[in-house]
């Protein structure tokens, strides 16, 4: 795969978006997925994104290292690993267009469920959030969608918002989750030829843009009120889901 001026410019734009999404607006990550899938072959775009995401993750966990709620990660990670294995099989044998549609549908369905859950009785809501099935279903879905399209952001946003975290803990807990998951994905994608020395060279060139976006995200997060932060996350998740479904 050759990288011309257009591809490099798009890569820099996506790097900014990734950096910003890692420290300021998590649901923006799905926009990076959509842009890369438009400019590059769909499967190739998946492999190109993973190392870029890891760079953003490292920056995010460094900045928010004290704001992680570990118990929420341990509740969901075993199920995420199951989803990663299932997603690897799907990625290997299925067409990318179908996978993109499925991811978009899943994100939108989960968004609707979150809006419905916001009107539930508090006792029922607490029971659902603490249930094994809640963590299992969202964990498996997150694992599948992140493996086949780097698109678990919408699903994890629903999971973390349900835990009623403040915005710093929301970003910090999510940052550690994405770092763990993206590192796990590397050997799977490499085995399919989606991550190579050639693609890694492209990713290295994008590091300055990722760092710049991360710095912008840190500043933006401090200035966005908690209520508006949650609204923006939900709106961007919906936009991302629609883009994946009909893009």
From TrEMBL:
Top-level taxonomic group: Bacteria
Listed GO CC annotations: plasma membrane
Keyword Transport: yes
Transmembrane intervals: 12-39, 72-91, 98-116, 136-162, 169-188, 200-221, 228-246
InterPro entries: TM_pro_TauE-like (IPR002781), TSUP (IPR052017)
Entry membrane topology: Multi-pass membrane protein
The UniProt record lists the keyword Cell membrane: yes
Subcellular location(s) of the protein: Cell membrane
Keywords for the protein's UniProt record, in alphabetical order: Cell membrane, Membrane, Transmembrane, Transmembrane helix, Transport
Major location category of this protein: membrane
Similarity section: Belongs to the 4-toluene sulfonate uptake permease (TSUP) (TC 2.A.102) family.
Record-given protein name: Probable membrane transporter protein
Lineage of source species: Bacteria, Bacillati, Bacillota, Bacilli, Bacillales
